[in-house]
Amino acid sequence: MTKTSTEVDIDIEALNEEYASLNPIQRLEKVFSDFDHEDILVTSSFGTTSGILMSMVSKAAPGHPIHFIDTTFCFKKTIEYKQTLTEILGLNIVHILPDIEDNTKAREQSLWETDTDACCHLNKVKPFEPYKMDKKIWVSGLLMNQTPFRANLNIFEQRGEMIKMHPNIDTSAQQFDMYLADNGIPAHPMIAEGFDSVGCTHCTLKGKGRSGRWSGKSKTECGIHL
Questions:
Q1: How far is CA 174 from CA 122, 143, 206, in A?
Q2: How far apart are CA 60 and CA 122, in angstroms?
Q3: What gap in Å lies between CA 140 and CA 138, rounded to an integer?
Q4: How many angstroms separate the CA atoms of 65 and 63, rounded?
Q5: Is 156 in contact with 19 (CB distance < 8 Å)?
Q6: How is the chain split into domains, by residue range?
Q7: Please, how many CA atoms are within 13 Å of residue 151, restricted to the half-sphere of its CB?
Q8: Domain 12-189 classified CATH 3.40.50.620?
Q9: How far, in Å, CA of 61 to CA of 16, rounded?
């Protein structure tokens, strides 16, 4: 039976057990069958690992909105990659922009140099908050092999009043590459340049895994997934 946003008592442990034996595309097909589509929020940064989730969502729920937070500090090649995947997969993109005053403050003060947490909050976390309202399931493409924090995540996690779903959480790097090749999905162009992970221009360097993100700082997450 389809669950609606009014049914707030959902057993996370039971969900994880029920979905564990399924592959990622089966998990997505099932969540879009088990829950009202209007209750499901899908996000993508269109970074280096976004191709697999975008392809699978386009198959499981064609036309479902994909929310993209444009901090205005994205690499040009990330924006081009978003457009490439949009054209190939027929994606329905919802663009989220930060408040003009907040964004201007960050830009004029070079806030990423003095307070990375504040910069992420103003340009990513804060503008995203309204889009989470009235949603029950939040689907994102986190992988457990990316960071110690992500290594401990399950398919489903409770995040405040929402349930976070990571359908590809246990996808290996080899499986990821095979999926892209088998389905004709291009890789993010910056991977070939030595960027395993890509975020904003000011806080991203070349590096393996997420070592190039906020290099030299203890920070490993922008904040929207915590």
A1: 35, 12, 20
A2: 33
A3: 7
A4: 6
A5: yes
A6: 12-189
A7: 7
A8: yes
A9: 21
Give SS3 for 97.
coil
pLDDT at 68: 97
Let me know: does 214 contact 203? Beta carbons within 8 Å: yes
Q: Are the CB atoms for 149 and 21 separated by under 8 Å?
A: no
Segment holding 114, helix H or strand E: helix 111-114
How many other C-beta atoms can be found within 10 angstroms of the C-beta atom of residue 96?
16
Please check whether residue 14 is in contact with residue 112, taking contact to mean a CB–CB distance below 8 angstroms: no
Hey, which residues does 204 pair with through a beta bridge? 213
Report the candidate in 203, 173, 175 with the shortest Cα–Cα distance to residue 191: 173
Q: Strands 162-165 and 156-159: what pairing? A: antiparallel
The series of mean pLDDT values per 10 residues for the chain, 226 residues long, is 48 92 95 96 94 96 97 97 98 98 97 94 96 93 64 83 90 88 95 93 89 78 67
Rounded CA separation 86/58 (Å): 10
Length of the chain: 226
Cβ-based neighbours of 22, under 8 Å, separated by 6 or more: 30
| pTM, entire model | 0.88
| Identity of residue 63 | G
Return the residue matching tokens 């090649």: 77
Question: What element of type H or E holds 138?
Answer: strand 137-139
